Amino acid sequence: MSTTDKLIDALHRISVRSKPPAAPETADELEAVCRVLESEDPQLRPAASDGHPGGVVYLRPELPLVVLPDIHGRIELVLAALSASYPDHGIEQPLLYALDSGRAQLLFVGDYVHAEARARERWMHAFEEFSGGFKKHVAMDQEMNESLGVLQVFALLKRAYPDMVHGLKGNHENISNEEGEGNHSFGKFVLEGAMVAEYMDRFYGGAAFEALYRLEKSLPLLAVGSSYLISHAEPARFFEREEVIEYRRSPEVVEGLTWTDNDQAEPGAVYAMLEHYLRHSEPSEAIYLGGHRPVQDLYALRAEGRYVQFHNPARYGAAVPPVNRLFDPERDVLELQNNRTIFDG
């Protein structure tokens, strides 16, 4: 069996599994991807002053890129993106094969975990389990099977194609539900952040919990392409390159690129970022991609049309910045079919 076939088989098994992975398996896989993230090529991810890879990742400008919005446990979105081809954007074969042959790149904008409104009722049942000390945990097992499954999928892809697959940190990457270091505790329908932290501590305490915490701290915050920038959230203010590279020392940078609400960013922040990072491009023609806050359609435009927000939790969306022309959201923000052909063939 080829390396790609083994990867396809592993991704398939994760996607059809009905229970969360075993703690030792989770620990091994997350520790392995941490080692990859902590030894990234400094040409792609310049090092901070402490020697660790910094918060900026530079994408290869000559290669097509597929950008996935907030995942929130939707493994099927990832498999649909990997199964699809993007012929109008130079990816003639399924994305997974293009990654394998070094002909395409894939970027996640963060928020791999915590199902949103589609699982509201499940969260309510899980809260009852949480309140009972997790003596029963059927609903929470379903949630964590999805969330840990997405993290496993990312880990497998990043390990297989370290220079072609990248993942940014989102505001939901906070497994300990900490308040600080740019993170905030989370609760939307119930106490999701606290519930996940308690579940992980109880059933994945020790190596697996520590590896996931380490993974979250190892993810970069900003991706730079030829004529575009990408972060999880709209930048709260202008952050210069060295600030973002040194993100581990600056909670404000972490918070400002992962938590910014709509209409919360300083005026002109997006344009200033484009001008600073894309000095060879005309800022008025460049775009900034992000997710974080849901949109009603496939995308919404902010910051005088320069910021393209494309996270719709009810649809399978992807952004595919073109290599040889200006970004057109009508043409370059795509709706994917719920098709996982290469994983079930």
CATH architecture annotation: 4-Layer Sandwich
What are the secondary-structure elements, in order, as H or E?
HHEEHHEHHEHHEEHHHEEEEHEH
Query: What proportion strand?
Result: 5-15%
Extended strand count: 11
Kindly provide the name of the CATH class: Alpha Beta
Give the spatial strand order of the biggest sheet: 1-5-6-7-9-8
- Percent range for helical residues? 25-40%
User: Largest sheet, if any?
Assistant: 6 strands, mixed
How many structural domains are formed by the residues? Answer: 1
Q: What is the arithmetic mean of pLDDT?
A: 96
Tell me the CATH superfamily.
Answer: Metallo-dependent phosphatases
Rg over alpha carbons: 19 Å
CATH fold-level assignment: Purple Acid Phosphatase, chain A, domain 2
Question: What's the total helix number?
Answer: 13
Q: Give the N-terminus to C-terminus distance in angstroms.
A: 15 Å
Low-confidence stretches: none
Shape: globular
What class do helices, strands and sheet pairing give? alpha/beta
